[in-house]
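Data availability (excerpt). The following record was deposited with the supplementary files.
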Amino acid sequence: MNAIAHSLSSARTLWDLVARRAELTPDRPVLLQGDRTLTFDELRARAERTAAGLYGMGVRPGTVVAWQLPTRIETAVLSFALARLGAVQSPVIPFYRDREVGFALRESRAEFFAVPGVWRGFDHGEMALRLGAKGVFDAYDDLPGGDPAVLPPPPSDGTSVRWIYWTSGTTSDPKGVLHTDRSLIAGGSCLAHALELTADDVGSMAFPYAHIAGPDYTVMLLLYGFPAVMFEQFALPDALAEYRRHGVTVAGGSTAFYSMFLAEQRKQPGVPVIPSLRLLAGGGAPKPPELYHAVVRELGVQLTHGYGMTEVPMITMGAPDDTVENLATTEGRPPEGMEIRIAEGGEVRLRGEAVCRGYLDPAQTAEAFDEDGFLRTGDLGRLTGSGHLVLTGRLKDVIIRKGENISAKEVEDLLAARPDVGDVAVIGLPDAERGERVCAVVERAAGAADPTLEALTAYLRAAGLSVHKLPEQLEVVDALPRNDTLRKVLKYKLRERYSETVK
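Predicted structure:
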């Protein structure tokens, strides 16, 4: 990390970081989208005007504001406006629907809710009214504005909880993860340090800005003073023109993104799909070693993969100068300040500034941390002699599809209510494109016809389940495998059986 970035990483709050970067490089671009460019100084100025508008609406330091917005320049401006006010913000992934959104609004006790109106054919405003949300306002491209002179002083405490992110664990309902400005700055600093980027780089955000990766990545832009291209709707090959137009040097997201870029490259072998690209980087899902080798060989760029979660946005990251063996088979090394402990039984536990403060539910917080203050990740792994982390499995019954956590129990609970389902187990199976795909294994119900995948997914859609959680594979069996004591379903046997049919 260079001297300027190292100095900026000590910023107490996110707003402090924005203000300091705007002073250093006011006219350099930070966000690029279509024909629009936002400089660091414009980000600061627009966020202050928006903060004044929000203040006029009644938003104060500590006010809980939920927002469900796509990856857009206005979304970043709104988020930093809330940071300027010292509000508590609760980002909600745009493709979440009634079940998840309603839970997040209730549990966070949000006093305001920013939505994009009708977006990609879905009326978010109508859903908000249906859920009885408070203070609903459209923030797609018409942000509130006002005179910054009315604003109170910016927050100076970076260790107060000002962020509530949502993640699905082993229970059917999401968990509200509590972060501070300092924990997010620490996470972004970890990423920036590992990737060894410079002010000459051009990044890309092809993931939901409402994901924990949003501030993680934006902190990196603020530390190093380089821009990123934002994609409101990401799809290949359509997005390639924007990558080429802006000369993107660093791209990625997760295993699914690596596979998509590789598929595009294979259409014209030997012709660089993005001529300026030098690095793919990401995390959020398992990375098969063979995928690493294929990317390096066919795309002609380096690939660095890392390990993070909503609770700790950056834990380890591969560095461009790591050995081929470490880049292909490990999740990289932790940065300074991140402690990794491998507990008895192989569970990975974490302690450091980037670790969240816990959960909205105090009982979940008490369960999540051990007696020494280490976060129990539920992941299994080991550390190599060089300090690289190798993940070997998960204790949690969570499926990670395209970098997003999916609770198997949530899907199981919904499917179990169908009369044509005797019992059901939902599992994640290895998938080269998605990291994992969702497979429902259904036990036949006596006297009922076998359900079809189309019927099950239509049922789940009607129940308000998010599209990314829908099963992509259905297997119908006479009986699910169970143990001999409590008759618990043995999911590992199902994974062994159906992993042989990887698609």
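Summary of structural features: Residues 129 and 481 are 44 Å apart (CA to CA).
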